[in-house]
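C-alpha cells incoming
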C-alpha cells in the first residue's frame, strides 16, 4: 500500500501525517507505506530553499523520522521520542545501494548525511571473515553523495564507513 506525496501546495504535511495514521490500521504486518518525492530533487537538503513545497517536505520528513511521544501508539521514526537513535537510522544516515554490475565491475551509490558539504567516507568489503578497506578515505560531493565503481561480484558484501559519525551503513549484498 503506498501513499504518493503530492506537491506540498496540494497536500500539506499535516494531511500526509493524517494519511499515514489512516493507513496504519489497514497495513498488514511487514507492510510498507511509501512516500514519493521526499527529497524533492535535493531541495530539502538546501537550507537556502525556503519555498512552501520544500518547507512542507522538511516537516513531513521530520514527522517520519521522530517517534510518536506516546509509547503506546505505533512508532515509525528513526529516533525515539527522547531522541535516542534506533538501528534503522543507519539506513537513513548512510543510504547505500547498487546501481549496476557487469561481471565484477559494480557501481554503487551512497550518501553521508544529514550534514551539508563534502564528507569523508571509506568503503569496506566483507572478506575472509572480516571487514576490509577498499582504497583510501575519499570525499563525497558537496551534497554528501558518492558514486564509485568497485571490484565486487555477486554476493559480495559492502558497506560505507563514516569516520566522523563512527558508524557504518547497512550491508549491501551485490546482486
Amino acid at each position: 500500500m503506498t501513499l504518493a506525496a503530492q506537491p506540498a501546495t496540494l497536500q500539506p504535511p499535516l494531511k500526509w501525517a493524517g494519511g499515514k495514521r489512516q493507513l496504519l490500521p489497514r497495513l498488514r504486518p511487514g507492510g510498507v507505506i511509501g512516500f514519493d518525492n521526499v527529497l524533492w530533487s535535493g531541495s530539502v537538503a538546501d537550507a537556502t530553499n525556503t519555498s512552501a513545497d520544500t518547507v512542507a517536505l522538511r516537516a513531513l520528513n521530520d514527522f517520519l523520522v521522530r517517534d510518536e511521544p506516546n509509547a503506546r501508539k505505533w512508532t515509525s521514526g528513526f529516533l525515539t521520542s527522547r531522541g535516542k537513535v534506533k538501528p534503522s537510522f543507519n539506513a537513513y544516515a548512510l543510504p547505500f545501494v547498487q546501481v549496476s554490475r557487469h561481471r565484477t565491475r559494480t557501481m554503487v551509490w551512497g550518501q553521508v548525511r544529514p550534514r551539508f558539504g563534502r564528507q569523508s567516507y571509506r568503503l569496506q568489503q566483507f572478506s575472509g571473515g572480516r571487514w576490509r578497506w577498499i582504497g583510501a578515505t575519499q570525499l563525497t560531493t558537496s551534497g554528501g553523495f558518492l558514486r564509485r565503481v568497485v571490484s565486487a561480484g555477486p554476493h559480495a558484501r559492502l558497506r560505507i564507513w563514516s569516520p566522523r559519525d563512527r558508524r557504518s551503513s547497512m550491508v549491501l549484498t551485490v546482486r
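note: The chain has two domains: 1-86, 90-173.
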